[in-house]
């Protein structure tokens, strides 16, 4: 009997540690996930930067009414609108304050992309056109196409990896990576399905590779790089938590848990051309390359940041061409999977974006930053809603 109990106990512990079973147990990621994983602490700044708070503000009374109405029953935890370093709107759900930590999900990718830019600025990485296998030579044996894969391809999600991001199977790579699988081992087994730079495909494993390269070239952990090169220099007011896999390695593609105000600061950094209170944290050259309107419109994704979208749809190609002539524009006309024709107009706004519509949106023209954090819901298309708000504030 005693032996039976010992075996049963061991089995329970094994099952509890099993990544697929964790994914079934928790089913859908949510704001409580930081408590389910091991984390490292990213220490706050000793010289915090604080946005001014001018909310409520009668000047933006109409904006308040509009957003308040739209956010009802949308599982939004925090919604901040910041203009010229001043909070002009804030929404907090009943159980949240501005001091609560919220999960970034894939917004973390934009932080890792920025750390990559800093490494390039410091010549720790000579160029993003260098081959990945220069730093991770062990990958060369997996597929001969690694001989043509550059860091820039990885930054722009144009690597061609054989990695399915859209699977909700508990045994799939993306689910296993989120729930704690050995990420270094997963990277070591990567193969290709496309020639690099031929197809844009959003794959979280790209960011994990960037993290491994950063650690190789700097001799420091990614969490240390975030703390030293971004979190403290940007005046973070609170410590952050960054989740680890089952082997104690950082989940670089996701899982920074921090306050909305501190997440907003990555937006402020890019809004100000990489300069923070007189110090150039990352070069303006990198920021300009990342946020260039032509690149954003064409590629949708640059250096781990998303472009927003500004599409015009038509029932046929002739209507689209006629509208382009009317507006004296020269954008290409494309056909969508549903049969409609469209063209994508040049965009100037961009965002760090995560699952369930987490976002730090930046509008350089209007000097606006919007942070939305919360749960999954279908009532409102937050991607369109956030950019509509951001473009309307003068």
From TrEMBL:
InterPro entries: Beta-lactam-related, Beta-lactam/transpept-like, Diverse_Enzym_Activities. It comes from the Bacteria. SUPFAM superfamilies: beta-lactamase/transpeptidase-like (SSF56601). GO terms for molecular function: hydrolase activity. Gene3D superfamilies: DD-peptidase/beta-lactamase superfamily. Transmembrane segments: none annotated. Keywords: Hydrolase. The keyword Hydrolase applies. Residues 103-373 form the Beta-lactamase-related domain. This is Serine hydrolase.
